[in-house]
Amino acid sequence: MPSTPWLPPQAAAAVRAAVLEAVRRYHRHDVLIDAEPPREPVLFVGNHGFGTVTDPNVLAVAASLRQRARQQTYLVHDMAWTLGVGGLVAAFGGAPASEESAVEAWTHGRDVVVFPGGDREAGKSWRDRNRVMFNGRSGFAHLAINHDKAVVPVVTAGAGEGAFVLTDGERLASAVGLDRALRYKVLPVSLSVPWGLSVGLSGLLPYLPLPSKLVTAILPPMRPAAGEDAAGFAQRVEDAMQSRMDDLVANRIPLLG
S-S: 132 plus which of 138, 217, 240, 242, CB 3.0-4.6 Å? Predict the structure, then answer.
C-alpha cells in the first residue's frame, strides 16, 4: 500500500511550510504548551475537527509541532490509498495506519502522530464539535504499551466550526455500502464552502473551512499505570483530552474563539 511521494522532499517541505503558515494566519492559531514533550520519539495523539483531507485539526497539530527537532509520521486511514492519493499523503509525512508504519518511524527517530477517532470523529455533527470521540478505539494504546512509548495528547478547539454538519450520516453510509467499499462509516450531511448543502462531499473531499480561531494545547505525557490494559489507558487519555477541551471551549464564541 505505501506509495512513492508525489513531490521531492524539498518541494514538499516548501509547500508544507507555506500551508502551515497560512493556517496560522487564517485561523489565528494559538498553541498552549502545558508541558514540553519528551525529547525521545513519542506517540502524539490528536482529535479530529471535521473532514478528512482538509481537517484543520490535522494541520493545527502539524503547525504546533513544526519547531520540534524530530520529524513526524502521521498515520492515515487507508482510504487515501484506496482513492489513489497515497502519493500526496506520503509527500507530507503520511503513512498507512499500521503498527509497521509506527515501528518504522520510531526506528528512524521520528515521532508518530495518530488521530484515534478516525472517520467517526472526523464526520461528527455540529452539536458534537467539542467532543473527543475515540469510539472505543484503543489501538494507539496497544502501540504505546507494546513499544514503551510515551503518549502526548494534543487537543485542538475550533476546527469543528469550519463547516455546519447537520448529521454524521452513519446510517446512510451503511445503507449505500460506503463502510464496505472504503471502510468509511459516516457520510455527513453538511453546509460548507464550496459545496453548499451536500451529502458526504465536505467530509470526503477538500473544502474551505470557515476562518474559525484554532487553539491547540499540548498536554503532559502519559504512560499506562501498573497493570493497566490498553482499553483502560486509551479511555484515560481520551478523558484527559476531553477535560482539556472543556477548558478551551468554556467561554468560547463560535468562529471568534
Answer: 242
Q: Is 81 helix (H, G, I), strand (E, B) or coil?
A: helix
- Grid cell listed for 110: 521520528
For the record, the C-alpha cell of 211 comes out as: 476562518
Please report the DSSP string for 181-240 in residue order.
Answer: HHS-----EEEEBTTEEEESHHHHS--B------EEEEPPPB-PPTT--HHHHHHHHHHH
* Cβ–Cβ under 8 Å, residues 124 and 223: no
Give Cα 188 distance to the centre of its chain: 17
Cell readout for 187 is: 457520510
Q: Is 74 helix (H, G, I), strand (E, B) or coil?
A: strand
pLDDT digits (tens, 9 = 90+) for 18-74: 989 999 999 999 999 999 999 999 999 999 998 876 789 999 999 999 999 999 999
Decide: helix, strand or coil at residue 113: strand
Residue 101 sits at φ, ψ, to 5 deg, of -65, -40
